[in-house]
Design brief:
Length: 64
């Protein structure tokens, strides 16, 4: 689902699975295990699993 984090920067470390993060602007970032992704606060995005396994992440959220 589309969402954002008000005044919270988000990092996530991909542990398992592949997919992409899509931004409201239309940009996409593919991810795979061991990738570290940064999403600035107030950036509308969604995560899409493109693999046949359940994706696992560590999410780290920091006040912006």
């Amino acid at each position: 689902d589309w969402h954002d984090h008000d005044k919270i920067d988000e990092f996530f470390l991909v542990l398992r699975g592949t997919g992409y993060i899509e931004f409201e602007s239309g940009a996409k970032i593919d991810y795979k295990p061991d990738d570290l992704i940064y999403i600035p606060s107030n950036t509308k995005h969604r995560i899409e699993n493109t693999s046949s396994v359940e994706n696992e992440f560590y999410f780290i959220r920091l006040d912006a």
